[in-house]
């Protein structure tokens, strides 16, 4: 029911979290992690659905924290003297 005690609690939670730069989404994720005893699993052949799921979580968090949805890709490469690629770093810059 709008305007009830639940709304007041949510408003207070937003105010408190905002003082520490935390989003409600981030708090929710932390609570889930603490409650579920997670493990890290290496999966170099993760499906596109799984990769998209994780990317959506990161995107939602970034928008919640920055209040901006702009991003752009970045790519850094390590090359030898012959310009052969030895390695690199790929990623995204958020809200720049």
In words, what does this structure look like?
This protein is α+β, with helices and mostly antiparallel strands and 96 residues long. It has 2 domains: 1-39, no CATH class; 43-96, no CATH class. The protein contains 3 helices and 2 strands; from the N terminus they run αααββ. Strands 1-2 form a two-stranded antiparallel ribbon. It is extended, with a radius of gyration of 19 Å. It starts with a helix and ends with a strand.
How is this fold's topology laid out?
Blueprint: H1 5-19, H2 24-36, H3 48-66, E1 71-79, E2 85-94
Antiparallel strand pairs: 1-2
Oligomerization status of the protein chains:
single chain
Mean pLDDT: 79
Describe the sheet with the most strands: 2 strands, antiparallel
The H-and-E topology, N to C, reads as HHHEE
Strands side by side in the biggest sheet: 1-2
Total domains: 2
Overall geometric form: extended
Task: Determine the number of helices (DSSP H or I, runs of at least 4 residues).
Answer: 3
Return residue spans where pLDDT drops below 50 for at least 5 consecutive residues.
none
Q: What is the total tally of β strands?
A: 2
**Gyration radius, to the nearest Å?**
19 Å
Portion in helices: 40-55%
